[in-house]
UniProtKB/TrEMBL annotation:
Keywords of this entry: Disulfide bond, Electron transport, Redox-active center, Transport
Region of interest: Disordered: 23-44
InterPro entries recorded: Thioredoxin-like_sf (IPR036249), Thioredoxin_CS (IPR017937), Thioredoxin_domain (IPR013766), TPR-like_helical_dom_sf (IPR011990)
Protein name per UniProt: Tetratricopeptide repeat protein
The organism of origin for this protein: Streptantibioticus ferralitis
PANTHER family reported for this sequence: GEO12009P1
UniProt xrefs under Pfam families: Thioredoxin, TPR_19, TPR_20
Length: 320
């Protein structure tokens, strides 16, 4: 189940629809190519051992971004010295194999791949992210119980299927996955209904209620981020906001307000670039405020891969 369209028009909805459409086209193309390879080589699918792969900066585009058009890619950021990573890693690997091609696990050693670590804005490890159709979303940080991870994986698969048309890859010896419709969470449905009525405050509270009991709920995270953005700009005076930003280029609050307007107005690169420049101009708490808001906007857009990766690279250059 995907987040409902917002009551206000703007880039949040249009970008999501455009990205989903493009992702579905890529997924269909990937399935056609995979079927053609199988027909020519009598291929029965990948081996279960190929569902867990080590990824580097050099292979990230091929093994994560491109593969995310045919299967949700879960990323495990880890390091040899990290004890919680040693607990979480084997559990993620075992669960990935149990999903029989519905998920691919990409393991990234942060010590050997610092640029990826920085681009994703990882605060600590272990950290688990997902990429679907070239779009990144955080899942959870730190070790987690198996039942909670299974819930997150189930939601990830549902989002991939319903929003992007991505159904996974065939695995040798595995039976085809049965089609299923995940149950509707009444609290999540209440949030969607509030959005349909234009009640942004009610929607935000409903999504927060969902996340309080289920912190890994991907749909609620996406919908909450979008609803909060829409509420921030709902009563804004565009001329006043842009004048304040022009008059105070180093004021993080003025630039954040303008970036929100940029985003809702469809100027995604401008919004990202504005906050990257603000991070560059500021220090201390002001810099951190701008940086964190930029990361929030990445989540809001569910941005197409080139824009997010480019902005994350620019942010990393400024910070480091």
């Amino acid at each position: 189940m995907q987040p409902r369209n917002m009551s206000m028009s703007g880039v949040v909805d249009l970008a999501a629809v455009k990205a989903a459409g493009e992702a579905k086209q890529k997924a269909e193309q990937a399935r056609r190519e995979q079927a053609a390879r199988g027909a020519g080589q009598n291929d029965q699918g990948v081996a279960p051992s190929q569902l867990v792969i080590d990824v580097t900066e050099a292979t990230f585009e091929r093994d994560v971004l491109e593969r995310s058009n045919e299967v949700p890619v879960v990323i495990d950021f880890w390091a040899e010295w990290c004890e919680p990573c040693k607990q979480l890693g084997p559990l993620l690997e075992r669960l990935t194999e149990s999903y029989a091609g519905r998920i691919l696990l990409a393991k990234i050693d942060v010590d050997a791949n610092q640029l990826l670590f920085q681009q994703f804005g990882v605060q600590g490890i272990p950290a688990v992210f997902a990429v679907i159709g070239g779009q990144m979303m955080p899942l959870f940080q730190g070790a987690a119980p198996e039942a909670q991870i299974r819930e997150v994986f189930d939601q990830l698969i549902a989002v991939a299927e319903q929003r992007f048309g991505i159904t996974g890859i065939p695995v040798e010896g595995a039976a085809p996955a049965a089609e299923h419709e995940p149950p509707i969470d009444p609290a999540l449905a209440a949030g969607h209904d509030a959005l349909d009525r234009g009640d942004l405050g009610g929607a935000i509270q409903a999504y927060k209620n969902v996340l309080s009991g289920d912190p890994g709920n991907i749909e609620a995270k996406l919908a909450l981020a979008q609803a909060e953005l829409l509420r921030r700009v709902q009563d804004a005076d565009p001329q006043a906001v842009r004048k304040a930003a022009a008059d105070s280029p180093a004021d993080p609050e003025a630039q954040i307000a303008a970036a929100d307007l940029d985003l809702v107005g469809g100027h995604v690169e401008d919004a990202f670039g504005r906050l990257v420049d603000t991070v560059k101009r500021t220090v201390g708490e002001d810099r951190e405020r701008a940086r964190l808001h930029l990361l929030e906007l990445f989540d809001v857009v569910g941005a197409e891969e080139p824009r997010v990766v480019s902005a994350r690279a620019a942010l990393a250059r400024v910070l480091f």
